[in-house]
Write a structure and sequence with these properties.
- By secondary structure, the chain is mostly helical.
- The chain has one domain: Helix Hairpins (Orthogonal Bundle).
- The chain has 4 helices and no strands.
- The chain has helices at about 5-30, 30-50, 55-85, 90-120.
- Helix 1 crosses helix 2, helix 2 packs antiparallel against helix 3 and helix 3 (about 55-85) runs antiparallel to helix 4 (about 90-120).
- The protein is flat, with a radius of gyration of 19 Å.
- The termini are far apart.
Length: about 120
């Protein structure tokens, strides 16, 4: 392995360490992520309980990931906005509202996926 390949691999390992650190920060400090993870555990249990199909699992895992990514990016945007402008600012508020709106789109998508999967099984 040459020096360039070795540097690439070390760089990816370093990036992975930062990513794991970020995940830990999210799950240990952010209540919205904690709530979403609790919901993810519940719907995962429901998936096993109702013995959902492989395709249903794919959509469920996608929905969980979509929510966690949206919540994570929203948290990042909020933290960045708070860092840039500590006091209330109308433009910063607008940016934060848009980020929260993105989470709402993800949540609506996840709810629809959940209804499509579980409503027929419950009824």
């Amino acid at each position: 392995m040459n020096h360039q390949e070795n540097g690439f691999i070390k760089g990816r390992i370093k990036s992975l360490k930062f990513a794991i650190k970020g995940v830990w920060f999210l799950i240990s400090t952010e209540h919205s992520i904690m709530v979403q993870l609790a919901i993810a555990v519940m719907v995962t249990f429901l998936g096993w309980w109702f013995d959902i199909s492989t395709i249903e699992w794919i959509f469920q895992v996608f929905a969980i990931g979509l929510i966690l990514v949206a919540e994570s990016l929203n948290t990042c945007i909020e933290k960045l906005c708070d860092f840039i402008h500590i006091d209330y600012n109308k433009k910063i508020g607008f940016i934060k509202d848009i980020a929260a709106g993105a989470v709402t789109f993800a949540a609506i998508t996840a709810i629809i996926i959940g209804l499509i999967i579980y409503l027929p099984k419950i009824l």
